[in-house]
């Protein structure tokens, strides 16, 4: 994943100067407000429970919606700093949007990933919603996640977004279905998930391969979703994208799927990165304007 971030984010940075910004037409602006950046805003007592918030100038509670960035790292690693190029790209190409770039508490020997990381995403959404007036934002979110971060975004959207505040998800190599034979054949997947789960937080006998799969929860709460996968990804099979598309189609949910030659995003072509960028841009423009 780290190599993917270096290559893909380098491409994003190179493309910032060549892409024009979008101009919003609707809504009233607040010209008294300048752009503001708030780093490491705490949303809990754990030192990892922080996010960076980028607020645009002239923001208001009607038009200033948010792009919500969630890093990857197998639920045990990674950091919001891995998403900095996304921040810079969005600021350059969608300057009217607020951005929240989040950390969640990583799983280790003393802290379970699930449901704690789901709870972290919910806590951030709730905090930003409660501060709508003070921040002058509209707490409507487009979520962009990479790998494990994409998994968290999809799970939040379909299972935990009770207020329907998420309007789209961009899933970059995120696992959608742990029951896929790929996982059973290549990993001790059930054992791995059991180590990540606080089993006392779930009903006895819960099938975690199913419960933790975003595909299980697709329904009327699920938002439009764009998905990007590699043909020879050793971590997340392209079938996860194909099966997720089928489930979204069955539920009448707008979606786009692209499968690129290569691995976990680390060796995709420039043309692939360009298309990915264009599709995410279109989702931001379509669903956050």
Describe the 3D structure:
There is one protein chain. With 289 residues, the chain is an alpha/beta fold. The chain has a single domain, classed as Rossmann fold (3-Layer(aba) Sandwich), CATH 3.40.50. The chain is built from 10 helices and 8 strands. Helix 3 (116-130) packs across helix 5 (148-160). The chain starts with a helix and ends with a helix. The model is unreliable at 16-28 (pLDDT under 50).
Secondary-structure map with pairings?
Elements: H1 2-16, E1 36-42, E2 50-55, E3 66-70, H2 84-93, E4 98-102, H3 116-130, H4 132-135, E5 141-146, H5 148-160, E6 166-172, H6 181-186, H7 189-196, H8 208-211, E7 225-230, H9 238-250, E8 255-260, H10 270-288
Parallel strand pairs: 3-4, 3-5, 5-6, 6-7, 7-8
Antiparallel strand pairs: 1-2, 2-4
Helix pairs in contact: 1-2, 3-5
GO molecular function: hydrolase activity
Keywords: Hydrolase, Signal
Pfam families: BD-FAE (PF20434)
What would you say about this model in short?
This protein has 289 residues and is α/β, with parallel strands linked by helices. The chain has helices at residues 2-16, 84-93, 116-130, 132-135, 148-160, 181-186, 189-196, 208-211, 238-250, 270-288; strands at residues 36-42, 50-55, 66-70, 98-102, 141-146, 166-172, 225-230, 255-260. The protein starts with a helix and ends with a helix.
């Amino acid at each position: 994943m780290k190599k993917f971030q270096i290559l893909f984010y380098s491409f994003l940075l190179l493309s910032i100067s060549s892409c024009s910004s979008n101009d919003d037409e609707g809504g009233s602006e607040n010209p008294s407000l300048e752009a503001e950046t708030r780093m490491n805003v705490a949303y809990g007592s754990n030192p990892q429970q922080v996010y960076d918030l980028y607020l645009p100038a002239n923001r208001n509670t009607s038009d200033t919606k948010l792009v919500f960035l969630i890093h990857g790292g197998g639920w045990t690693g990674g950091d919001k700093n891995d998403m900095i190029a996304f921040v810079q790209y969005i600021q350059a190409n969608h300057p009217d949007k607020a951005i929240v770039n989040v950390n969640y508490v990583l799983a280790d020997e003393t802290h379970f990933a699930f449901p704690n990381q789901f709870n972290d995403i919910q806590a951030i959404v709730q905090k930003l919603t409660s501060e709508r007036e003070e921040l002058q934002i509209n707490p409507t979110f487009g979520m962009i996640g990479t790998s494990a971060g994409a998994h968290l975004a999809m799970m939040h959207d379909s299972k935990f977004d009770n207020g329907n505040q998420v309007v789209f998800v961009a899933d970059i190599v995120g696992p959608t279905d742990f029951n896929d034979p790929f996982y059973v054949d290549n990993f001790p997947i059930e054992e791995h998930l059991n180590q990540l789960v606080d089993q006392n937080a779930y009903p006895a006998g819960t099938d975690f391969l199913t419960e933790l799969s975003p595909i299980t929860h697709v329904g009327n709460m699920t938002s439009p979703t764009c998905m990007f996968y590699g043909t020879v990804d050793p971590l997340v099979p392209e079938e996860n994208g194909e099966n997720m598309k089928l489930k979204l189609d069955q539920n009448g949910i707008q979606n786009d799927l692209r499968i690129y030659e290569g691995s976990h995003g680390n060796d995709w072509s420039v043309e692939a990165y360009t298309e990915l960028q264009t599709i995410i841009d279109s989702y931001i423009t379509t669903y956050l304007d």
